[in-house]
Design brief:
With about 750 residues, the protein is an alpha+beta fold. Helices cover about 50% and strands about 15% of the residues. Strands 10, 13, 14, 15, 18, 19 and 22 form a seven-stranded mixed beta sheet that branches. Strands 3, 4, 5, 6, 7 and 8 form a six-stranded antiparallel beta sheet that branches. Strands 1, 16, 17, 20 and 21 form a five-stranded antiparallel beta sheet that branches. Helix 5 packs parallel to helix 8 (about 160-175) and helix 8 (about 160-175) packs antiparallel against helix 9 (about 180-205). The N and C termini lie far apart (about 75 Å).
């Protein structure tokens, strides 16, 4: 099929040539006017950057003012030349990556490895400038058809992990292209499969294990897959603890009346019925629910569910009420006892999960959820930003043993010698065999100041290690600087905040907006100002998923003196509240600020970057943000059986209106919409490989506890490599813009030195 690979590659790159040729025939505009003096030049460049005028920015970079301080101008010119070299290298890397992806695609198709071929096609598309052109290539169209055929066979065989991996790649291949209908179809099919796999993960661990073993045998036939751990066969029961019908009823009643879509009861009830139908048609669940093995009883259950759905469908949405919920739930619980005979809690949980899933499917709301009793404690820890424990992240390994993902730096676990990949075999002398992660968390955490004894099995060590640790308050630190200098005994880091000490440019990487973020940020600013004059700042919000609304508002207010920061709209598009800036809080107003964003910047990150962008308080650099602009409120739905909550989407965030606009933009991404998120002023793209390389270097440089007596501190990575080697093009551009904004004239330099 791919004997014509060179011609195929030329076809993919021809779009670039055609695009250039087409642009050359467009109306030629006069070049931007570039001022001659430093003061006017830097103001003009900054205005061009805020306006998103890339051409004007580059024109300014090409004509540095003659009256600039000679040394500063020479240094800026060298930085610009380095940037240009990095861009050329990046283009070369992209070309090489496209060739490698094409060769990989060719090789995997020859091996009839559809999954790997799809992966190569996605990589090829990611590195190409015209994603639609990749899909239109005859070879890719043939691959898509072949993948469809393989997926159909896997589906018939109930090989859900195989189906998932193919549909995931097909969806990705069609994402953000003109083929929206195909993308929506793959999205819907993938979600249905994900739901089935989720059911297996929750209720049928052995069936999921067998699928994983099958998948491993296909992908890595030489790798020995561990035997199933029988101790976890009853693990599924924990997900049902404390669930009651009153919880479900309260959750759906609140969602029906208060959800931002004004959806009412009908879609919730239909979503719940669909979910219990999917449950009954997921054959592998027979592992723990033997009633599903009786085909006649399953059919009787399905007939009852389908009859309820048909009856519901005939009712006008306005006429569906709580009484219909009572009727349907009564029919389900009674029908279950007469047919498939699963625990009532299964029906209740799956019905509620299906109802909230319908909000995602029909209204693009993936954030509404019931937080069940077994989930509530972990949810509260995430929101609060701190907890009492020993500071370890844990998960189950392939043997379902409790494995340390990593000890949090500076925590009791880190200081006590706990290492990544250690296995916790006992807690306070009690073996962990058969423990769920929830139980492990409950046993390891506890009152502050009390000791817990972890027994650890470590590779290469014959006997378990007994590690006593004193529980302490663990702070999830969200404010990070440029270079971590040290850690004190409590795990508090000391940062060098300046990415460019000479020009007084600080750097803060904010990883979330929790209770402590704002105060920690103020401490960082105070530390910078105590060291030297803070003349500019880079605020890095990349991969920041958001957090607390109040924290985002306070951050924005630091830089915005007047006007609206954010508002909220209800289901009718009516502004229900808005938050104006408080002038006395804006003590950082006028500070030259560059904000970094990417597809991983969401929610509160979008409020901050969008507000600062609208008010021209910052230049936003990077890529379009995620598009999570909905507001969730928390509702207590606890019952005497247990504590639970409903996290419900009730409003949408709106950015402040730009000049000349009456209404601000919504940042939330909706189905079929093409306007969402915060669009950067200066777009700088990075490939997945570049993002990964930058992340790995940054993480390795920050984990200074790793650089102990066994590792030479001189070998510790220097974050400066991110810029010097052109690894992080977005950070490099932000720094260039700030250096240009702060460029001094020879006279200014002389005054400053006197």
């Amino acid at each position: 099929m791919f004997d014509r690979r060179p011609a195929f590659f030329r076809f993919l790159t021809a779009g670039l040539v055609l695009a250039v040729s087409a642009s050359s025939s467009a109306i030629v505009q006069d070049p931007p006017v570039v001022p001659d003096t430093v003061e006017a030049w830097r103001a003009s460049l900054w205005e061009a950057a805020i306006d998103g005028d890339d051409a004007a920015v580059e024109s300014h970079f090409a004509r540095l003012p003659a009256d600039a301080d000679e040394a500063a101008r020479a240094e800026l010119r060298l930085a610009l030349e380095a940037r240009d070299g990095h861009d050329e290298q990046s283009d070369d890397d992209r070309d090489a990556g496209r060739r490698e992806a094409t060769e990989e695609l060719e090789a995997k198709l020859a091996e009839d490895d559809v999954t790997a071929a799809l992966t190569a096609a996605v990589r090829l598309q990611t590195l190409s400038d015209d994603w639609n052109a990749v899909l239109e290539a005859a070879e890719i169209e043939a691959l898509v058809k072949q993948a469809e055929a393989v997926e159909a066979v896997a589906r018939a065989d109930r090989d859900w992990l195989r189906v998932q991996e193919i549909l995931f790649r097909l969806r990705t291949l069609h994402e953000d292209t003109d083929r929206k209908a195909e993308h929506a179809d793959y999205e819907a099919r993938l979600e249905e499969v994900n739901r089935r796999i989720g059911l297996l993960a929750r209720y049928a661990p052995r069936a999921l294990y067998e699928l994983r073993a099958r998948n491993m045998a296909r992908l890595e036939p030489e790798t020995e897959f561990p035997e199933f751990n029988e101790a976890f066969a009853e693990d599924w029961k924990e997900a049902l603890n404390g669930i009651s019908e009153r919880m479900v009823r309260a959750s759906l009643r609140t969602a029906a009346s208060e959800h931002v879509s004004n959806c009412g009861w009908k879609p919730l009830l239909d979503g719940g019925l669909e979910a219990v139908e999917i449950f009954s048609t997921t054959d592998q669940l027979v592992e723990n629910f033997p009633g599903l093995a009786d085909r006649s009883k399953v059919q009787a259950w399905r007939d009852m569910v389908e009859a309820e759905r048909a009856s519901l469908a005939e009712l006008p949405a306005a006429n569906v009420s709580r009484q219909d919920y009572h009727r349907i739930m009564r029919a389900l619980l009674e029908g279950n006892r007469d047919s498939i005979k699963v625990p009532d809690e299964v029906i209740l949980r799956e019905f509620a999960e299906g109802a909230t899933y319908r909000l995602e499917d029909a209204y693009s709301d993936q954030y509404t959820q019931v937080i069940w009793p077994e989930q509530l404690r972990r949810f509260q820890q995430q929101v609060q930003g701190d907890f009492v424990g020993v500071g370890v992240m844990i998960r189950h390994d392939d043997k379902r043993e409790i494995m340390i993902v990593n000890p949090l730096e500076g925590s009791p676990a880190s200081r006590g010698g706990v290492l990544e990949n250690d296995r916790i075999v006992a807690v306070d002398g009690i073996p962990t065999t058969g423990w769920s992660l929830t139980r492990a968390v409950d046993e390891i955490t506890g009152p502050e100041g009390e000791e817990v004894l972890l027994s650890l099995r470590r590779e290469g060590v014959e006997q378990p290690l007994e590690v006593p640790l004193v529980r302490n308050r663990i702070k999830i630190r969200s404010v990070n600087g440029w270079f971590k200098k040290s850690l004190d005994e409590d795990g508090t880091p000391s940062w060098d905040w300046f990415i460019d000490p000479e020009d007084g440019i600080g750097y803060i990487r904010l990883t979330s907006f929790n209770d402590e973020s704002f105060n920690d940020f103020l401490v960082a600013v105070d530390e910078m100002r105590a060291t030297r004059d803070l003349r500019g700042l880079i605020l890095d919000l990349r991969f920041n998923p958001g957090g607390l609304l109040d924290s985002a508002i306070r951050f924005s207010n630091l830089f915005v003196e007047n006007g609206e920061i954010v508002s909220c709209e209800d289901r009718d598009g009516i502004t229900v509240w808005s938050r104006p800036a408080t002038p006395q809080m804006a003590f950082l107003k006028g500070l030259p600020l560059a904000v970094l964003v990417n597809q991983g910047s969401a929610s509160a990150s979008e409020i901050v970057s969008g507000c600062l962008d609208v008010h021209e308080a910052a230049v936003v650099v990077g890529e379009r943000t995620f598009g999570k602009g909905s507001v969730q409120s928390l509702h207590d739905v606890s019952d005497r059986t247990g504590q639970a909550a409903l996290k419900l989407t009730t409003q949408y965030y709106a950015l402040p209106p730009a000049a000349g606009e009456e209404r601000g933009r919504l940042v939330h991404k909706t189905q079929g919409g093409d306007d969402w998120g915060v669009n950067p002023d200066i777009t700088v793209s990075m490939t997945p490989e570049q993002n990964q390389k930058a992340y790995d270097l940054r993480r390795s440089a920050d984990l200074i506890a790793d650089w102990d007596a066994d590792r030479d501190p001189a070998d510790r990575p220097d974050p400066r490599t991110l810029i010097d080697d052109g690894i992080d093009a977005q950070l490099e551009m932000a720094l260039l813009l700030l250096r240009a904004r702060l460029l001094e004239s020879a006279d200014e330099d002389k005054v400053a030195s006197n």
